[in-house]
User: Fold these one by one.
Assistant:
Number 1:
Amino acid sequence: VSNALDDAVRQLDDAIAQLERAIDDYTRDDWIVIRNLGAQANQKLRDFAQRAEDLANVLHAADPINDRISKWSDVGNKTLALNKDVSGAEEQHKGIHGQEYWEGTSRNHYNAQVTVQQAAIGGLQTAASDVSASLNAMSTGLLSAKHTGEITVVSIAAFVLSVATALTGGTLIGLLGAVASAAGVIVTVNSAVEDLSDAQSKQAKALSGALDKQGDWPQPGVQAFDQDTGWVPAK
Amino acid sequence: MSDIIADLAAIRSDADRWHDYAGQAQAISDDSGKLDINFSNTIINEYIQAYNNFCHTFSSRAAAGNKAMTAMGNAVADVARRLEAADHPK
């Protein structure tokens, strides 16, 4: 999947190639100075382009993550509907009400199991909500990194082109400084993505840990109420 | 005085509801089981793996919910049959 940062990296590669040709074609008296500075600039630019490409590659994760945000929203809505149904919060006829019509020990066992199952459904809804929040945070972080990366790479590509068309020792020295600054920005953006990844990883693991703490979905001990004694019509 | 017909109907309604909820839980399990992300990049691999593990766990739990609530529905339907067969609830 292509994005604007991929396009910017391609622009940068084209600009670097153009600069290399301009340096090769340079024939004035100071050509040795230009060749030496040009070699330094090209090395820095290639390193920078590689960092930018690495960033572009990781940002491709934004597409599947955004897709999952939408799909988890659908799952979340289903857990919400199930939770509302089982509680009868909005539509009385949809809830579990048999226990309200009976008394006795079996009825009490049944009522206890109803509560356990309702709690498990509530836990499912909470977990769906939590993973959606995690994905949203990840998407926001990646989008921010993408914008910063695009601006930085496009800016350097334009600078490289301007130096290729006005090649002097001074412009090459200026380019070296600009590349160093831009590389610093890309490193910072990459670090921010790593930090974000680490933080979200911990959050996702915490979600899984929360489910583990809750334990497997409790299977009901139906034998405690599946009998014809202990059910007495409520008065 | 209680209305036995209505009392049994309430239990049978619960049985239907549990089976309905079980179906909903299975649908949730099926949907969430397809949401893993097939993406590899060293910078965010840890997150992707943790996320995929979450999807698997969540889906498994919802499937267990299907099993649990099916059992609830079956049992409570059985209770209604027993009470009716006994002619009058005890």
Note: Chain A is about 80% helix and 0% strand.
Number 2:
Amino acid sequence: VSEACKITVERRDDIAILFTDGYINNQGGEEIARQAYTQLDAGARALILDLEKTRIVNSIGISILIEVLERVMDRKGVLAFCRLTPTIDKTFRIMGLAQYAAIYPSLDEALKAVAAAPRGEAARNP
Amino acid sequence: MTRTPTEPAAGRAELWKLLSESLRSSPEHPLPRRVVDAALAWSGAREAVLYLRERDAWLPAIATAESAGLVLPEPPPQRPLPSGTALWIPLEAEGEVHGHLGLDGVGSEEQEELASVMATILGSLLGAHRLSRLVKEAEFEVKTRLLELESLYDLGLSLGGQLDIAALGDEVLFRSISLTDAGKGTLVLFDEGGKILFERSLGGELLAADRVASWSLPEGESVINNAAAAVPTAGMRLSACQKCLAVAISVGGRRLGALAVADKESRDGGVLDFTAADARLLSLFANQAAAAIETARLHRAAIEKERIERELELAAAIQREILPRALPEVTGVELAAGNLPTRQVGGDYYDLFPLSRGRLGFLVADVSGKGVPAALLVSTVHAAVHLQIDEARTVVELVARIDRHLRRYAATRKFLTLFFGLLEPETGTLRYVSAGHNPALLLRASGRLERLDSTGVPVGILPNPTWREEIRTMEPGDLLAVYTDGLTEAVDESDREFGLGRLERAVEERRNLPAARLCDEVLGQVADFARGMPQYDDQTLLLVRRT
């Protein structure tokens, strides 16, 4: 696990996929938020956060993800997570993130569900 | 929001509703800016400025474009409000001031009254907003505590079955860092011998692994150092962090490692002090880690024990295959033999060889060492004797051939003592070599006892060994007892040995018994002497009586 979280972005039509690599803390969370807002401003309807290469998230990272989620919902968009470690999956469920953002085991499943979700509705949690 | 004409006729309820909607929280439009926009829109003022208090601190002034003149060097409570054209209204709810709103260009009484009503509503809305934020924060805090508890529970579960130290270490380190909101952390684990089992850092190496073992950290207590840079904690890397929290990992007073986290993050990018709650949490993780390491160690010990037991079973199987299943029938000789292998499987071996012209060869050997290596050496000796017995012309030559065979083929550098006898029952001539073996006992029919002492060095121990052949004549009724030191060195609960004297008396007292019964009774007497104490060597007794 690298100390600084790196984000790479892939755009598929109106879906932006953010791949995280590293610790989602204050710095990592801010970087995710920056990239997410850039994508929303550039017309992305849905965001998928692929956390395959992230093994740690702290409470500050979670609070920033909640802010991102609020902004996505404010814009009637969709946010989904995929490829979480069991620990992060449980963390998101306890902290309430999973209430408004669906969690998928694979990127393919997330893409399918998000593509099918109407604007303004959270993709259904599997 | 664009400025709309003031509508003094608007009722309070409607104004409340409209302002509420204006202030609806949105991450894209921060609340202070919305308050200013709403105040400007609904008061009819030309310009507006807002000072808001959040978490007991005043935020920087938020002002409309041309209101520079209204911005004060300090928030209103810190200095008297300026007089003049500006209208300053406190925004308060239930006696608590949430901010101050300055409006410029509010001229008429009607506008002032509207502004005052608006300020009352804004104050209430800010109060409600603040309350809502506090509730959200409290909810987040409760969820965080729940997450901590769940993490400890999960860690306990996963560590209970976790025997991979690397996976275990990662789990402990990652959870410790994330749940204390630390920016970095290090975990060092070592075994009871001080060998490092795991060493990992995230964000920077905090601990000097080679110093952790001697670290003067109080056992079971955590150390909070919120001024790490100024006062380095012993065992920590200097300048690695600003604030740190560390705890020793120990089981029963044995140091098994240390866990340290550093630089607790705040939302604004600063570094917070570690708290007693953080220390408690880290100590709990350290305890979990200690328990898991101990479990892993016990598991390794159990695997090792199982491996040894499998080895012993294998060795015992080898030995069982090698020892003769039945004694040969030889005219003029009465034979008996007994062998009690110990749990640890020593290397006793006896064998009998009916030879040409009615002769009988017999052998008792005791290989050094235990377990599979000893059993394999016995197997090699067994092969050597069976290969060479027909080739050798004398007993000395046979022993020399066994010695050469062992040097050439034995996988391990071990040695053995042996007694080899060659008896011609017809004449009673006994030729023997005792290669460093315990004295065999020749009990004459007359009752006289002779000890047949060693006639050379043990086999496989010296480069150019020599042995001497001795000859005795066994008269009818004479009994020869050849045994291994497992008999004479059998111990009782006081660690006293059975000894040669007891063995001699045991044989003498029963010299008139049939050989098989004599053998059983002597072995039984040794067992009675030991009273169930675990024995460390095989016990073998071979009896040869000329009839």
Note: The mean pLDDT of chain A is 90.
Number 3:
Amino acid sequence: VVSRIPGLSVHDALNTPFLAIGTHDEIADHLLACRNRWGISYFSVRDIDGFRPGDPAASRYVGRVSMVRRAVLPAGARGNTLWKDKPVQGRQTVSIVAGFSKDYSDADMEFGRSVLQDLGFHETFVLTSQSPKLVVALGADATPEQIDEVVVSLGSVEHVDTVRIAYPSSQGDP
Amino acid sequence: MHSWDHVVDGWSPLTPLMAIADCTTTLRVCPLVLNNDFHHPVHLAQELASLDHLNGGRLEVGIGAGHSFTEYEAIGQHFDPPSVRKARLAESIEILRRLLDGKSVTYDGEHYNLDDVRTLRSCQDHVPLLVGVNGKRALAHAARHADIIGLTMLGRTLEDGQRHEARWQQERPDATVRYISEQAGQRWKQVELNVLVQAVVVTDDKKEAAQ
């Protein structure tokens, strides 16, 4: 990366919000760090190498992070109210990911996972950065083509940032 | 889902977004970004409001000042200096905002003159405007008018008309974000910051991948 961008150091490349390099965990931490430092809450991504339709990894980590948006939960809402009312059906499958703040207990996390499994998301994995905890759930039953977007919620109960990870379109590289 | 706006042998910026919206239910769509110089704001507002109605209010509008001088040359369009393109964009943003909000617009600007123009109001109460700009004056205007500011931290467009200098030293956004927040004043809490991540590399060895 650095060799293609004049004047950029390795340290810059790993910390600039305009690149995302690392494991899934490291990229999640990087996005959080960008949000915390600069307030950036909406990431548009051109492409993700190696995540194409049919790629085995794509069923775990779907394509393109197209949006990170702010959402505000009603006062007193728990994480589960975020996805409780979202229909999950057929082609409209939207993988909803519950967000848990550091205040949630392991039991809350487990409860969230169990509900997600009831919704058909059998494969869940937890990205635990220092805080907040993130639960990312992707539908193992859903093929990548069926997934419109994956919503990852970050942050505290009062202010939840929503990361939508949408599958790349077949129209090339907009 | 995003589209783009370039003179290329490829998709146009808006029609594909409608097709994508048609086969999805919640996905929001956003041209990232429209070249203001390629569209008159009145025609654009009408097109955008129509799109917003047809997709049930899932449109976001990304717009920028235009940069790819090779495309201007290819179609015989004058490529103005950055200050002029950005000033024209600023006027266009004000016009788009008011037309999309359903207001009648009379505008006496340097670049646009409108006399009591009204076009279709958007489906959403407030279509988010994403403004992709750099430079102090343009960022100050965006801080006062945009819902979302798209940062690329890209500098001069290089000889091929597509690639740019990258100004990604990691401390640089500090000053930019501080400046935007100062200019936005009371609006700062409602302004969203967007970045265009140019590359995502999933790897177990990030230091090596960053080389």
Note: The CA atoms of residues 19 and 165 of chain B lie 34 Å apart.
Number 4:
Amino acid sequence: MTGPSQEVECELIDLSSVAVAELRQTDLTEVAARVLRRLRTSGGSISGYSGKFAEPDAPAASAAPAS
Amino acid sequence: MTAEPAISPPRHRLSGDSFHALAAGLGDERTVRELRSAERSWRMVVLSLVLDAFGDRYDLGELAPADETWQLVVAADRAAPGIADEILTQPQAGVWAAHVLRRLDGSATGTVPSWVEAGYLHTLAAAAAIRAGLSFELTVPARYGVVVLPTLGHAVLPGDPAPWCTVHLTCVAGVFEVHTAEGTAVGPGTPAWQDPVILTATEDGQALTVELMSCDPYRDLRGPAAPRRLSPAEIERWRRLLASAWSMLVREQPERAPAIAATVRALTPVASRERFRYLSASGGEAFGNVLLSDLEDPVDLAVTLIHETQHQKLGALLHLLTLSEEDPERRYYAPWRDDPRPLGGLLQGVYAFAGITAFWARHDSPEHAGLASFELSLWRNQTVGALRTLLAGDRLTARGRQFLEQLHSSVVAGRGSPVPEPVDRLARLAALDHQAMWRGHHLVVDPVTVRGLADAWRRGGAATPVTETPAVTTSTSPEVGRFDTRAVLIRYLLTDPGRLRRMREDPGLLAATVTGALPADAALISGDRVVARAAYAGLVTAHPGSVHGWVGLGLALPEQPDSQAARILLSRPELVRAVACHLAATREPGEPAPDPVRLAAWLGAGNPAGSPPMPVPAVWPVA
């Protein structure tokens, strides 16, 4: 399907030529829906070593604050 | 006045070389550069969504409005291009942005006030402006008495501050101070200021540099976390561990080490775990950050860096391309997890374990020889099996199928040296054990079927075949699961047999060393099947709901091809357990408890299946 020399066209827009300062002037509507969908379902994108990685690490349960 | 036309950028294009390298489970610095560029684009979109969402929906309290704060970022970017980029693409900024969006749409909750969460933007902006040499003043939040300025360090406020408060930050041409309400000023050069902890390991001219993160509120992948200051001794231990692990990786994995160095930018330690039960994790929004529990051995850190770099590469690729389509009605068996996984989770797992398999195929230290053979045999077979499950399904996109077919070829081709038969047998036992434990915990047998079988047993009739596919539960109880308990004992057998012997002699030591392990387990792994069988039989007679006991009994029975009891216990433990539980719940006074081996053999005779007893399918409908 894709040979080593063939580029793969991706689904993500390329903002490499857009400076941070110009970000708010950039039209992102085309890609925003896909990104939001991924974020909403990305609870599963945390890839832990095993099912034992389930305990919350909320602030109250964490180690003592800095002293 | 006419509005300035919006810029419509093109799409990313991934080089064919990089796609194929990634599909082979590899990728070099150039590949990671392409992925980093994609991650920057992804992050910019996410940040833009956050800024859109803030609008008037987030209570910022006494903090400056988000748009105004963003203007500080813009000014920093114009004054010193590249600095804002570096700060905004930090992994913790991604965790923050995604978390805030989830809180706004209600898919995440939290106890941290919204203005404190929103105020992380202010600390990002402040860090960018300071490093750009600007002069400004800004109010920023402090959490648990700590103010973190990403990439610059953190200030520790004096006294016993409230969980959340604000501090005033002043900066003149890049020289800054944090002022508390009580009038204390903290900044670089004062005792209460802490620079980032940067660790660099170098081997054969190749360097790996990471920040050891412990105070940033978004260093944890799951949401905000309180600061956890590391002692100088802990930092020094991580420095030594990293140096040894990096040396090992450069020597043994020369084709993987450069990508690790290009990918991993931060390590976030969390509390220690039992030996062989370490934790590590990566997040799709945190490219470059690895969460990991305290480790003891450099080999554990080396394999963790391989493992997590695999996750990070695939996570970035998945931002570029869709490789699969989720089906919320299906869950998969993943041989490295206790919980039923969605397809995306299994995909991440096979990619990570392809890397782990490659690590163990090359690892050559004499003190780990037995362990390396065991891990290689276990994970290469499990990875190939899971890849075949994915390839046999219909949920892959064309690009995803191409990717996984190449990964499958790569794993099969790189199988490594033959594994000695005794160790291979232990790996097969561990694989069967985990799969059977998973089935016993998660598969739900139709209660009508169970009642019919129990009635037939009481009548002295034959067991009727059970042909329907059980449904799978989607939740797990890790604290009672611990499907790896006997595998952990195998690892002790291979690395420290004396300790296993002492654990067998001292049940207290066993329980304290391997949570969930029983004397029967220690007997089984030590090779004493007779003792193990009697103990497991006693356990399931007293507690017919014990999956651990039923599967252990199956493992302890003699290895005979025609052993109906062993086969059904290891291939369909959920069936035996369900019938035994029903018989116990409905037992008449004076009715003896069934002999567990006889009951299993009876069910096995009624449900003949092929050998070896590997359950199929590996994908299940959700109950």
Note: Chain A is about 20% helix and 10% strand.
